[in-house]
From TrEMBL, chains A, B:
This is LacI family transcriptional regulator. The keyword Metal-binding does not apply. SUPFAM superfamilies: lambda repressor-like DNA-binding domains, Periplasmic binding protein-like I. SMART domains: HTH_LACI (SM00354).
Length: 354, 354
DNA sequence: CTGTTAGCGCCTTCAG
DNA sequence: CTGAAGGCGCTAACAG
């Protein structure tokens, strides 16, 4: 035992200049090669599972590597192999349940595929976004990018990503494969559902004006209302509880109350619900309420919230699968896909089973 | 303009063997050097802000680099400099608001410090945890590790991390710097608050038995009750709404109802609240309710939830700051720190201002 | 099957 | 102040 590791032990003890890591020196492929009496090439082959290595040699190499606790240096490996085994994820933010769920879906697939995740958020700032994208170069094999801002100037237009990428909830652009939640059809369906339940004055609490999904949902609401004779009634919102709460109060104070309120997402619907609760207005008896997303809390509030279910984790998972396919075969046809959403009827609209 | 980029343009057009990345070739330091009529060494120095470069030369180099959209290749840089500019974040999971908030805090500091984040979750599986830690070697300069499972065998004991690391909400072990939410004192404070508000039969909805924080909160509850004459009354829970809901129902059905319920976290408190709502039991009139965490919804439910505020984003931010200090100076003394929590009194305990 | 060798792109002495 | 040159650790031809 001792004899085998003498060389390395000596190096460990008398490392001339301790390279970082708290004075530790790391074991390289050379150390393994020397201990196993083979060349570095053979070690590389053995460790990477190539076929052209004699069984006994492979065995010996693996043992030595294990004993020395060798672990290949990632930077070196990816510098020479030109692959990083890492996927870059660039998001507008990391805050809230949406991103959390998204990451969960992405993470599951990444783990399954043995890929690492380099995450970065740009806080809605186009400059930071550019910087984040640039910084990904040489660190990742592909990119998952979410850029939901419907700015006049497409921040991606000028960015040569220089690598395969998939767009998430960002519309379709730059000839990249894209995957979007089908917000438009979802919102239209919900609006029609409310109409068919007998509501005619349906108010809509919108999302941020520069957000792609918010835009699609508003469009779906308007189109859903189109032939009904009902006029659109839109309040501003921000996708958070606070703005839903504010919108709820505003609705109560308006001269003519709506029959139903459709919030562009569940968090706003909940904020609105609490505003109604505080004012003693009963849901659904006096006003019906609907949301969008089906967050976990939607089923626990009282009354249960009617909403559109969006499987966000599936969104992330599917996006990464698309990217992996692109990575495996760059000629995979590029398409824009939609993630289906589903109407979930609960008590908040007054037409639900108990 | 054209003349300057002729060389590179030619290369881009007639790259002999397109090296990965969908057939694109990337611009290297050599390209910049050639365009700027200097050596690669000078480019390197100029771009890295070293002082020994003539102002006009630096200017020219920066211009060329900008025009060519040059961005250094990470793997190459970290191979030669032995630093990755990346922090590894190893978490038990990526699911839910807690991790989302944690990541937000970490991300803010990382961005501020120009560091990237390599995230990985191990789904509560010790083997996966080991694999994740091993895979971090050579890819990151330091580690933020959350390992809240109070298993008999410390999964970290055998792991030579081989690099600076900070433990998050994982107790104190392995001689690593640690940062923990002060769950014990928080729970004790809350329990005493409930007692002093006149409640004597206080039930506690516990968290997962193998979770460090859950354990600390339970301990705080017991100690808070210690000299009061009240007996502990503990129900199992899982930190999610569903288990809080179940516990709430169980409490209602028990022969002797409690005066107050203290849930080990807000999600369970909300689940419990909805169970009470459904049963028509009024909070706080019939039963007082308290939680722990102060998630955003806590202030929007009706009645507002009395809870202990935990600044999770601050937890992440502080942990990364500690790690950065460790990275900057390995001799920084190692200590276990506590993140203070604060009592937030709302209406759910019946002693609050409206 | 195995060893030798030439880079991958960048940083960093060491001479000028 | 600047250029030339030697690696960093690993992979991938190319010869044996």
């Amino acid at each position: 035992m001792q004899e085998f590791c003498s060389d390395v032990c000596k190096r460990l003890q008398s490392a001339p200049s301790a390279p970082s890591f708290g004075g530790r020196v790391s074991i390289t492929i050379k150390d393994v090669a020397r201990e196993a009496n083979v060349s570095v090439a053979t070690v590389s082959r053995a460790l990477n599972g190539h076929e052209n290595v004699a069984p006994d040699v492979r065995q010996r190499v693996l043992e030595v590597a294990d004993r020395l606790q060798y672990s290949p240096h990632h930077a070196a490996r990816s510098l020479s192999s030109r692959r990083t085994q890492t996927i870059g994820v660039v998001l507008p933010d990391l805050y809230g349940e949406f991103f959390s769920e998204l990451m969960r879906g992405i993470d599951a697939v990444a783990r399954e595929a043995g890929r690492h995740l380099l995450v970065s958020s740009y806080h809605g700032n186009p400059d930071e976004q550019g910087a984040a994208l640039r910084a990904m170069r040489g660190r990742v094999d592909g990119l998952l990018l979410m850029s939901p801002f419907v700015a006049d100037a497409d921040p991606l237009a000028g960015q040569a990503l220089g690598m395969p990428a998939v767009l998430l909830n960002s519309g379709a652009r730059a000839g990249l494969p894209a995957l979007n939640v089908d917000s438009y059809h979802g919102a239209r369906t919900m609006t029609r559902h409310l109409l068919s339940a007998g509501h005619s004055r349906i108010a809509f609490i919108a999302g941020p004006t520069d957000n792609f999904d918010a835009h699609e949902r508003l469009r779906g609401y308007r189109d859903g209302l189109a032939d009904s004779g009902s006029a659109p009634w839109v309040l501003p919102g921000d996708f958070d509880e606070a703005s839903g709460h504010a919108a709820g109060r505003e609705l109560l104070e308006s001269g003519e109350r709506p029959d139903a309120v459709f919030a562009a997402n569940d968090m706003m619907a909940l904020g609105c619900l609490f505003a109604f609760n505080q004012a003693g207005v009963r849901v659904p008896h006096e006003i019906a309420l609907a949301g969008f997303d089906d967050i976990p809390l939607a089923r626990y509030v009282h009354p249960g919230l009617t909403t559109m279910r969006v499987d966000i984790a599936a969104l992330g998972a599917r996006a990464l699968r698309t990217l992996m396919a692109q990575l495996a075969d760059p000629d995979t046809p590029v398409a824009a896909e939609r993630l289906e959403v589903a109407l979930v009827v609960r008590q908040s609209c007054g037409v639900a089973p108990v």
